[in-house]
Amino acid sequence: MINFDRRVKWGLIVLLLPFVLHAQSKNNIRTHTEYLASDKLEGRGTGSRGIRLAAKYIAEQFKSIELQQIDGNSFYQKFPFPGEVEMESNVVGFIKASAPSKKSIVFTAHYDSFGIQKQEDQKDTIYNGARDNAVGVAALLELARIFKNAGTPRHNLVFLATAGEELGLYGSKFYVDHPIFPSEDIIICLNIDGFNVSGPREDYFIFPRQGVDFINEVKTILNPLGWHYISPDWVDDLNTSFDTASFLEKGIPALTLWTGDRLKGGKIAEPLDLGGIHTPKDEVTDNWNWEGVEEHLQLYKHIADYFLEHPDGISVTDPTMFMEQ
Ligand SMILES: [Zn+2]
C-alpha cells in the first residue's frame, strides 16, 4: 500500500509539474511587467531617474538568478550617448557554457521607453511602454531564470537588456562592438520586442523574413509543435527597426518573433483594444491575457534549445538590407 501511495503521489507530481512551472512563469512575468510599466518608473525615458530604477531592478533580478557579471563585477555596460544624456547603460548577465566555448546565443529586449512628455491636451503624460517593451524585458528575465535552472548550457547564453533602442538602437550597437563573447561567434540573437498579450495563438512570423537563411530552421523547430508560419509583406518594412538590425547589418543572425491573429482551431481573433504603442496608453490593462505571454516565451525557449544543439551553418545572406539608408 505504501508503495502504491508513493507511486500515485509521484505520478501526480510528474503530471502536474509542467502546469505548476507554467503558472510560475506567468506570475513572474506579470510581476516584472507591472513593476517596469508602473508610473513609478516614469516611462523609462533615456537619461531619466525612471530608467535608472528599471536598470537597478533588472540587475537585481539577474543577481538573484545568479547570472554572471561582466568582468565578474557588474551587470551594467555603460555606453556613450549623443547629446545631453552623455551616458546610458545596457544591463547584461550571462550563463557560461559547460565546456569552454566562444559561441553564444544573445537574448535581447530593450527596456527604454519615451519617458514623460507633456502635451497640452493630454492628462496622462507617462509613456509606460508596457507592451513596448516592459513585457519583453519581463520575458527576458524569466527566460534567464528558466535557463539557469535547466543546468549548464552547451554554449554561452547572454541576457542583454538594451537602452537607447527607441532613439536609434544605441545599446545593441554598442554590445555588438563590445561583446562578452566574440561577435563573430554569436550563433544567433533572439530579440524580444512586441510580445503577444492577446491570448494563445497558433500562427507566428519572423522579422526578418528575407536576407537570412534560417527561416526553414525555425519552421523545422516550431511547425511540428502545431505552429503555422505566416509571412506578411509588411514584415519587410521593419528590417531596420528592431535591435536585431545592429546584429544583422554586421552579418550576425538575429530574429524577432511575433505571433499572429489565428486562434487555436483556426479562427481569427477579434482585435482587442490594448492601447496604442508609443503613446501614454501603452499600459498593462485587465484584458491582457498572460497565457499568451507564457506561450510566446516558450517559442523563444524552443528556438534557443535547437540552436544550442545546432550552432553552425546559418548566416545573413544580405547584410545591406539591415543598414540604415
Ligand atoms: Zn520596441
Keywords:
16% strand, alpha/beta, 7 helices, binds zinc ion, globular, eight-stranded mixed sheet
Description:
With 325 residues, this protein is an alpha/beta fold. It has helices spanning 2-36, 49-65, 130-149, 170-177, 215-222, 244-248, 290-309; strands spanning 76-81, 86-95, 104-110, 115-116, 126-127, 156-162, 186-191, 203-207, 228-229, 254-259. The protein has one domain (2-322): Aminopeptidase, CATH 3.40.630.10. Helix content is 35%, strand content 16%. The strands form 2 sheets. It has an 8-stranded mixed sheet, with helices on both faces. A two-stranded antiparallel ribbon has the order 4-5. Helix 1 (2-36) packs across helix 7 (290-309). The longest helix has 35 residues, at 2-36. It starts with a helix and ends in a 16-residue tail after the last helix. The structure holds zinc ion (ZN). The site of zinc ion has 4 residues, from helix 3. It holds the Pfam family Peptidase_M28.
Q: Strand share of the residues?
A: 15-25%
Instruction: Supply the helix-strand structural class.
Output: alpha/beta
Average of the residue pLDDT scores: 93
Chain oligomer state: single chain
Total number of distinct structural domains: 1
CATH architectural arrangement: 3-Layer(aba) Sandwich
* Number of DSSP E strands: 10
Query: What characterizes the major β-sheet?
Result: 8 strands, mixed
Helix content: 25-40%
- CATH homologous superfamily descriptor: Zn peptidases
User: What is the 3D shape?
Assistant: globular
Q: What's the CATH class label?
A: Alpha Beta
**What is the number of helices?**
7
> What hetero molecules are bound to the protein chains?
zinc ion
GO molecular function: metalloexopeptidase activity
Keywords: Hydrolase
Organism: Ulvibacterium marinum
InterPro entries: M28_fam, Peptidase_M28
